[in-house]
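pls ignore typos typing on phone
S-adenosylmethionine + seq
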Amino acid sequence: MRIDFQREKAWWDAKATEEDEERGDEWVNKALRWREIEGILHRGVESILTVGGGTGHFSIPLARRGLRVTHLDISGEMLRVARRNAEGLDNVTFVEGNATDLKQFPGRAFDLVLNMDGAVSFCGELYKQAISETCRVARKFVLITASHRALMCAVWAEGSVKTRGAIVDAVYEMFENGTWHQAQHDDNKALSKGCTQDYFGAFKAFLPRELAGLLEGEGMEVVKCRCLGTLAALCDAGSLEAVRQDDGLKAKFLDLCDAFDEKILPGGFGTRNRAGLLAIGKPRT
Ligand SMILES: C[S@@+](CC[C@H](N)C(=O)[O-])C[C@H]1O[C@@H](n2cnc3c(N)ncnc32)[C@H](O)[C@@H]1O
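k done
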């Protein structure tokens, strides 16, 4: 089922003004990603490509630290906000482009390639191409976050019962293949009513072993592939907000989140908000 990237672009454009709002456990997801990035930076990273960089939540602080950053996004509106956020910086370059086609960059062009929270999962059936391109241009590391199929199965089942009073085909599709497309099944349009522009982008959610296998298929050694922040998804909103307000508590809570993902529930599903599945790979030499 072909993806209409003009439609996707318009959809992301419409979301640009709300991109920096943080909902629920989203801050935990971002903080855990920062920890993973920090763990990589000191390993000889000087240049970074962020694929689907959005409004620059990660790319701009990285540039402020003196790293050479290229920030690519499909959405002109996301780029407009990112450029504004980056005022005064001359070591970040903004590029409008598509994750599925990075041929403007030669192979192994960047020490680290970040492709987080959208530019894999929202490439629909072209997700393999997006992963392949991300891996091709990475010299030392790739860090990908994508949607975890376990959580999406629950979201799809809930949405189906709420809006259709039934378990519709899209739910079975999510369980079987992790895929969604607005035109895939008769009920899908009705299911996306109320989403931005009554649309939900062409989508692919992964199981950890599936994402790890895709990276291996691209010649990567998989350093890590697991969920991000399941503990936060299991805590109530009031407790999460209390943690967020207290820096000491926050550091301890994030340590617990790491330990939970690593040791208690390695097959967990990650945070409810933002992509809950993390994969880090490095090219096999
Ligand atoms: C939810 S935002 C995440 C932004 C940032 N990476 C982060 O983690 O905070 C997803 C971003 O991916 C971009 N995106 C989606 N599909 C893309 C594609 N095929 N190529 C490039 N960017 C894409 C969107 O425009 C949006 O800016």
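The two ends are 36 Å apart (CA to CA). The chain is about 45% helix and 20% strand. more later
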